[in-house]
Amino acid sequence: MREPDSNTSDSATLALQALVWTLGDGDRATRLLGVTGLDPADLRARAGDPAVLAATLMFLESHEPDLVACAAALDVPPQALVRARERLEN
């Protein structure tokens, strides 16, 4: 598995990939919108916003099977997603 660099740009890229993965499943996407309070238009407009990206990663963290599945799909360890969220929140 590859380990992303520790800078914010890489964290945002990884989080954006996780967002795309999350939206690839209709039920998961609906849960994300419900949890974040965003509607599809807001999400499209704010997809690059560090707060939205961090919220997406936090959403995945709250359900470990999703976190593990996303990490596997992106070929990174689950901890990389957690670290990316931490960097985006700072």
Structural class, judged by helices and strands? mainly alpha
Number of domains: 1
Largest sheet: none
How much of the sequence lies in strands comes to under 5%
Terminal residue distance: 25 Å
The helix/strand series, from N terminus to C terminus, equals HHHHHH
Contiguous uncertain segments of 5+ residues: none
| Record field, number of beta strands | 0
Q: Please give the count of helices.
A: 6
Rg, nearest Å: 12 Å
Tell me the overall shape. globular
Helix % is: over 70%
Give the averaged pLDDT, no decimals: 92
What does this structure look like?
This protein is mainly alpha-helical. The chain has one domain (8-89). Helices cover 77% and strands 0% of the residues. It contains six helices and no strands. The chain has helices at 8-23, 26-36, 40-46, 50-61, 64-74, 78-89. Helix 1 packs across helix 5 (64-74), helix 1 (8-23) packs across helix 6 and helix 4 packs antiparallel against helix 6 (78-89). The N and C termini lie far apart (25 Å).
